[in-house]
Specification:
This protein has six helices and no strands. It is mainly α. It is extended and about 60 Å long.
Length: about 100
């Protein structure tokens, strides 16, 4: 299978996985939905990032071996240190300066 077809297949797999997660989420209580809002948003961002990138064939092939590649990517992401909180703190200061 050529790389564009593989990339398209993986993209479709990610979308199907997210659709199933969304459908499950919508069946939950409001409290349970709130517990998963961050996960849902990050998973959406993963799909958005995947759309805009050209992933090497070996990585696409490897992810296609997983029954839940989106969940695998999400689990890997949440283990990483990010600048997210630093960005939030910086945004707080910038917003305050704007009103000074």
């Amino acid at each position: 299978m050529d790389s564009k077809k593989q990339q398209s297949l993986l993209y479709g797999t990610l979308l199907c996985e997210q659709t199933a997660f969304r459908e499950w989420l919508l069946q939950q209580t409001p409290e349970e939905i709130l517990k998963h809002t961050y996960e849902y948003t990050v998973r959406e961002d993963i799909i958005f990032a995947f759309e805009a990138m050209e992933l090497e064939d070996k990585y696409v092939s490897a992810l296609l071996l997983s029954p839940c590649p989106l969940q695998d990517i999400y689990k890997n992401y949440i283990k990483k240190e990010t600048d997210y909180m630093d960005d939030i703190r910086c945004s707080i200061k910038e917003a305050a300066k704007h009103h000074m």
